[in-house]
Amino acid sequence: MLLNKHIILYSIFFCFQATFAEAQQQLRGTIIDEATLEPLAFATIYLNTTSIGTTSDNEGSFNFQVPEGEHEVIVQFVGYKTLSFTVNSKEIAPQYKIKLQKETQELASVKINGERDKEWYENLKIFKSNFIGTSENALACKILNEKSLVIDYDPQKAALKVIAKEPLQILNSNLGYILHYSLVEFNYELRQGKLFFAGYPYFKENKLSGRKLKKVEKNRRRAYHGSLVHFIKSLLNNSLQKEGFRVMNLYRVPNPERPSDSIISAIRKEVLFGNLNKRKKDSLRTNVLEKRGLPKNLNMLDTTALSANELIVRKEDKIYMRASNLLQIVYQNEKEELNYLTHSRTKKPGLQTSILNIVSGEEELNLAGDITNPSNVFLEGYLAWEKIGDLLPLDYVPPPN
Fold first, then answer.
1. Hey, what's the signal peptide range on this chain (predicted)?
2. Do both 247 and 373 map to the same domain?
């Protein structure tokens, strides 16, 4: 599953005054070294997964507008730990003093220069396809500082682990952004197909004009439509059907045709080591062992479309998406990309179909179209296939048709 953020909170000190300004939406303050209290010039501060942010001046001061709602603020400076905290536009303090801690000696000593062997480049390909993706937009991306990656492959566990000493700079020419991505964690277990990565994306416009700009705008609209953010915003606006989404309950039940793993294991030992005649062994192979390739579970779909009111729960001033079952999400206005066919092993594109699983049964939603706790939500299908190469900032608003 693709996750686009992970919360890490280190050290922050708030300078509050006695009262808050009622409609304060300006985020102001200074960024300093926690130990020396010296200002940190040119530190980056931004709202997570947006294009909204700035850099501190020579005095470590910063000042930028914060849209209405609750936001995760990310503060970064080379050689220091990334810091995150949450602000609400209705409760922003008049002034913030943010203290950054220096990176640990262990990470600071990691070398990012020097030659890379053939194995490193092979692992880099695996990382790119599972982090940036294999869509048209993803294939147009280029990591400008890929040698900042520290790649570790464990052949015994068939596990790939990647860290980066500095934010990755990813040029996405199709979507017209230079994405600054602070990679917190990347773990990929190749045998099980389990993927987890997390980090802090910050989008900067790649200045374009004329035909290039029009093409980028077209690509952005296409990337937005059918995306997870588009789905969440449609859910919040009670416009699922209007926006082209069909959501249905999906029940996953054990496959009655497939024996359990314990039975398969026991029969396998009996066939290999038991004192059985050929006829009995052949029977066990046919009736048990050959069925281990069958899927463990079967999907049963309730084709009744769910409305937003059946999926949304409001508690005080917070909004939650609730589902006791798996949800199948079909975006009916676009077909799958041709590149997806290799992943799905199908012969021709169908409608973009995904499965969403809320582990705890409910998940808080942000008005910007974000999920508060992404580790609580698992995706399968098309939305899981789309990765960083198709990511747009949360503040992106598609132009009217």
1. 1-23
2. yes
